[in-house]
Structures are given as C-alpha cells and as structure tokens.
Amino acid sequence: MTLGPYTYLTLSMRPESTPQVGVSFHTPHLKVRAGLLLSDPRPYLEFSSHEANVHISTTGAGPVTDADLATAREIFTAAARYLADCEQLHAEQTADDKDATPDTTGPAA
After folding, report:
1. For residue 17, what are the CA distances in angstroms to 12, 13, 14, 21, 60?
2. Tell me: the pLDDT tens digits for 50-70?
3. First and final CA of the chain: distance in angstroms?
C-alpha cells in the first residue's frame, strides 16, 4: 500500500519526563535550506513543508561549539547516506519498471 504525501507530527508528554516531539516528512513538497544568520552570526539548517518546520542551529543559539561541529558532521554523513540510498533504490526501481513494461516497439505477432 502506498500512501499519498503527508507530514506526521507526534507530541509525547509523560509525568516527570521531558516532552518529546517527532516530525516525519513524507512529501515531495519538502524544502531544505541552510544559511548563516547575519544578525547574530550562526549557521542554521531548516526542513519545512506546508504542515511543519524544523530548525537546527547552534547550542543555545550561541557561538559554534565542538559539539555543534560534531552534530553538523553527523548531519552531513547521514544526508550523504540518504542520497546514496535514494539513488540506488531509484535506479533499481527504474530498472524493475522497464522490465515490467511490455516491449511494444517490435513487430506485432
């Protein structure tokens, strides 16, 4: 079963626990931006759709720390892996689609 595009948001609040927010984007309308805030120089990364926005920036919105660099490297590595997996699956699915399509270019039997 294939669902249409959607964004899924969960909020979990338990007594004496830190609230947990989860955002899942399953839409071709996802926008990803990165830049530098000039008013208080710090980098940001943003994921947004019509339904939700996720912003990532430095610890406490302050100067870049060693932990911020480690997080940025993890994001970079994860994004590269996501790209590689998407490219591989797309190539396989495209090949499967071509195999499943009957050849109508030859002479009729």
Report:
1. 9, 7, 5, 12, 21
2. 889 999 999 998 999 999 999
3. 35
